[in-house]
Specification:
Two copies of one chain form a homodimer. With about 220 residues, chain A is an alpha/beta fold. Helix content of chain A is about 40%, strand content about 15%. Chain A has two domains: about 10-80, Arc Repressor Mutant, subunit A; about 85-195, Rossmann fold. Chain A has helices spanning about 10-25, 35-40, 45-55, 70-80, 95-100, 140-145, 155-170, 195-210; strands spanning about 30-35, 65, 85-90, 110-115, 125, 130-135, 150, 175, 190. In chain A, helix 1 (about 10-25) packs antiparallel against helix 4 and helix 6 packs across helix 7. The mean pLDDT of chain A is about 90.
Chain lengths: ~220, ~220
C-alpha cells in the first residue's frame, strides 16, 4: 500500500465496528487487546485489522497490542466523532419511534435532536426528550440547528419528497429506512436499511445450498 | 465474463433492489422497462444491470426492454422467493414489533411465522396475527415448522446466546439487529443492521468534505 493512499469505503465502514467492539471491551474492564482478539470479535483477521488501521497512521506496538481506550479515541477522531453531529429523524411511526429511542444513539458524536412527522396527531408528542415537529418545520429547524445528517423513516411514497426538502435545507448525509432508492444531487450521501432486501439476498444462498457448486457468501 | 461464472455477492445483493423496483413499476401499471429506466431507479447504469443479469441467463430483447412482470418473476425465482420461507423473529421490544408489523414482509417468499421474547409480560400477546412465545419454545417451534431464517432483535448482551439456540435448532441465515457481531459455525450466514455504525461511517466523509483531497464514498 502506498503511503497516504485513501482508504477504500469498505475500510471506512469497518471502523465503526472496531469502535463498537472497543467500547464493549472498555465496559468489560479490558484495557489492552491484541489485533487477533479484536479481530475475533468482528470476524476479521488480525492482518486485516492491521492493514485497515495502517491507512490512518501508526497504532499500537508490535507484540504489545493496542491500548483499548487510546485506540477507541483515535478511531473516533478518524470518524469525526469527536465533533457533535446533530441528526434529524423524519417519520415517527413505530419504526421511527424505535430508532428515536435506540440506546445506540447515546454514544459519542451522533445525537437525534429533531423529530418530524406529517401526522398532526403525533406533532407535539415527546419522544426520548425531543418534541415532534410538523414536517413544515424541516427547513427552518435544519438551518437553525445546522443539521447535516438525517434519518428518513417515512413510507416509500413520501421518501423522495422528504429527501428533497432535507437536501434543499442543507442535509448532506441520509440514512434511509424507506424501501425505495431516492435521487440526490452529487455531494449528498445516502445509505439504506431495508430488512426485506437483506433477507431476499440470503434466500438466494439458502435455496442453493444443496447445489453441487454452492456460492458461499461472506459473513460481514 | 465466463459462461457459468458464479455471481459475486455484490450482484446477489442488488437483485432484491431490482425486484423491489419492478414491484413498484407493476403497482404503477408499467409493463415494459428499459435497462436505463430501471437503472435510474436504483442508481446503477444500464450496462451494470445487463451485466448483473447476464450471470443468470438471457433476459429481455435488445432494443425492446424488459417485460416487467416476467423479469420480476425470473428474479424472484433466482432469489428462491417462489418458495415459502418461514421466518422467526426473536425480541419483540419496540424495534422487534416494528419489524413484525413491517408491510415489506407481506411480499413474496418471506413470512414471519413465529415470535419469541424472554419477557413473560410479552409472551401470549398477539402481534400482526402471530402469538408471542417464550424463548424456551425456540428449539421446538423452529424444528416443527422447519424454520431456517431468523431475525434477531434482542439486546446486545443476549444476542450470542439466542444465536446459539437458533443455530442448534437448524437456523441457517440470521439477520441481526443487535449491535454486536455474533460467532456462528461455517455454513450459517449472518447479516447485520445497525444504524449507528452506518451513521458513524458517514461522519467520516462529512468531517472531511472540506479537505483538498476528499474521498467520496459511493452511494449504494
Amino acid at each position: 500500500m502506498e503511503r497516504g493512499e485513501l482508504p477504500p469505503d469498505v475500510v471506512v465502514r469497518r471502523l465503526p465496528l472496531y469502535a463498537r467492539s472497543l467500547r464493549y471491551l472498555l465496559q468489560e474492564g479490558v484495557h489492552s487487546v491484541s489485533s487477533q482478539e479484536l479481530g475475533e470479535r468482528i470476524n476479521v483477521t488480525a492482518a486485516q485489522i492491521r492493514k485497515d488501521l495502517s491507512y490512518f497512521g501508526e497504532f499500537g506496538k508490535q507484540g504489545i497490542g493496542y491500548d483499548v481506550e487510546r485506540l477507541l479515541q483515535q478511531i473516533e477522531e478518524i470518524l469525526g466523532l469527536t465533533q457533535d453531529w446533530p441528526v434529524a429523524l423524519i417519520g415517527v411511526g413505530q419504526l421511527g419511534q424505535a430508532v428515536a429511542r435506540y440506546d445506540g444513539f447515546r454514544t459519542k458524536g451522533i445525537h437525534i435532536v429533531a423529530l418530524f412527522d406529517s401526522d398532526p396527531a403525533r406533532v407535539g408528542q415527546e419522544i426520548a426528550d425531543v418534541v415532534v415537529q410538523s414536517i413544515d418545520q424541516i427547513p427552518t429547524t435544519i438551518r437553525e440547528r445546522s443539521i447535516r445528517m438525517a434519518i428518513v423513516a417515512v413510507p416509500a411514497l413520501a421518501a423522495q419528497e422528504v429527501t428533497n426538502t432535507l437536501v434543499d435545507a442543507g442535509v448532506r448525509a441520509i440514512l434511509n429506512y424507506a424501501p425505495i432508492v431516492v435521487q440526490v444531487p452529487e455531494g449528498v450521501w445516502v445509505r439504506y436499511i431495508d430488512p426485506v432486501t437483506v433477507l431476499h439476498s440470503m434466500t438466494y444462498y439458502l435455496a442453493r445450498e444443496h447445489d453441487t457448486d454452492p456460492a458461499l457468501p461472506p459473513n460481514d
